Amino acid sequence: MYVCFTSSRHGFLDGFRPVIGVDGCHVKGPCPGQILTVVGVDVNNGSFPIAYAVVEIEIKQSWIWFLRLLIEDLKITNGSSYVFISDKQKGLIPAIETALPTAEHMMCVRHLYNNFRSSHSGLALKHILWATTRATTMPWWEAETENMK
C-alpha cells in the first residue's frame, strides 16, 4: 500500500528544500511488515511527511517500487537536484542508485555517530560531530573538521 496525500505533495512541491529523508520501520502484531517513509525538510529545518508505504519485507524491490511511485508523485525529472538522507536500510542504497542514479545520497549523522561510538566513547566526538554538521559555510565546516581530527 502506498500513500501520498495531495496536500503533502503540493506542500513539498510549493516550497520545500530538495532534501528528502527516507527510512523504514518494523510493524509487529498479527499483520507484520515494514513501513517505508519519506519526509521533506521545510525552510525552518522541520520535518514534513510526504509519503509512506506498507510492504511485506524491506528489500531492494520494495524500495524501488516505493521510490518510483514517489518520483511520479513529486514529478522528479532531474535526480541530481535532490539529496536523499537515510541510514543503511536493507536494499535502500542500491534502490536509490537504480531509481535515481544521479541523486545525491547521504547517510544520517545520528546513524553515522552510532558507528563511531563503539570506538570513541564519551561525548566529545558527539559534540564535535554535531558542530561540524551545523556548519553552513566552508570555512566554518573546515574549522570544525580540523577540530574533529
SSE inventory with pairings:
Blueprint: E1 2-3, H1 6-13, E2 17-27, E3 33-41, E4 47-55, H2 60-74, E5 83-86, H3 92-99, E6 104-107, H4 109-117, H5 124-134, H6 138-148
Parallel strand pairs: 2-5, 5-6
Antiparallel strand pairs: 1-4, 2-3, 3-4
Provide an overview of this structure:
The protein is α/β, with parallel strands linked by helices. It folds into 2 domains: 2-107, Ribonuclease H-like superfamily/Ribonuclease H (Nucleotidyltransferase, domain 5, 2-Layer Sandwich); 108-149, no CATH class. Helix content is 42%, strand content 26%. It contains 6 helices and 6 strands, in the order βαβββαβαβααα. It has helices at 6-13, 60-74, 92-99, 109-117, 124-134, 138-148, and strands at 2-3, 17-27, 33-41, 47-55, 83-86, 104-107. The protein has a 6-stranded mixed sheet with strand order 1-4-3-2-5-6. The longest helix is centred in the middle third of the chain and has 15 residues, at 60-74. It is globular, with a radius of gyration of 17 Å. The model has no long low-confidence stretch (mean pLDDT 85).
Short characterization:
This protein has helices at 6-13, 60-74, 92-99, 109-117, 124-134, 138-148, and strands spanning 2-3, 17-27, 33-41, 47-55, 83-86, 104-107.
